[in-house]
Amino acid sequence: QVQLAESGGGLVQAGGSLRLSCAASDRTSTSWFRQAPGKEREFVAALTAGGLSSYYADSVKGRFTISRDNAQNTVNLQMNNLKPDDAAVYFCAVGSSSWRSINPNEYPYWGQGTQVTVSS
User: Fold this and answer.
1) I need a surface site. Which of 33, 65, 82, 112 has the fewest CB within 10 A?
2) SS3 (DSSP) at 5
């Protein structure tokens, strides 16, 4: 059973930055999703197990960076130039057959989520 735990969420002003971390019990390809109130869960970014390839949703490309810290066994999401539309609960997920799948239904393992609030 894979265990995931997100951290790093909080309140930030528009234009600010936050860094989220996903601690995983296994080293595997990892994705970040987010879900705002009343909205579907949406894909944000994905990273291969080796950390060499990444994939981003168009809405975050150029502002967010996904990376792996092998020493800490975490997958991090650096979020810069945050916008009010980025406010959501952010989840990390693993276990999809394709490392860059954007369909949340293809991920069997999820963390509990971390709240990101962006004030305008």
Assistant:
1) 112
2) strand
